[in-house]
Write a structure and sequence with these properties.
Elements lengths: L5 H12 L2 H14 L2 H8 L1 H6 L1 H23 L11 H4 L5 H7 L12
Helix pairs in contact: 2-3
């Protein structure tokens, strides 16, 4: 991960290490509320601003590589389960937005605990 931007990846990870529990709790709260803006603030916006090359490698390029595979799954008659990290789902460069741009209808699925 972060190939070509290894130093940025390590620095970013170490900065967040001290706040991991707080960040994780905020992320869970945002996820439960379905608040994509809050989750974006936690996971995406800082790395996008502070380390744009890392963001491109870690999020954008990986998402673009996964899209054709996901579309292949969509076209099969079987129901498929695709597990993707939250940072890849949300934001303007997220998989959900990319699927919508390609004409797919994407809906949130919410369940009660």
């Amino acid at each position: 991960m972060g190939e070509g931007n290894e130093n940025d990846f390590i620095v970013h990870s170490l900065k967040d290490l001290k706040k991991t529990r707080q960040i994780f709790n905020q992320l869970i709260d945002g996820w439960k509320k379905g608040n994509e803006k809050e989750m974006s603030e936690i996971l995406v916006n800082q790395i996008k601003t502070d380390y744009p090359a890392l963001y491109s490698t870690l999020i954008v390029e990986r998402n673009h590589a996964w899209l054709p595979k996901i579309e292949t799954y969509i076209r099969t008659p079987q129901k498929e389960f695709v597990l993707i990290g939250t940072g890849h789902l949300i934001g303007e460069d997220g998989i959900v937005q990319d699927l919508k741009k390609r004409g797919y209808k994407v809906e949130k699925f919410h369940f009660e605990e």
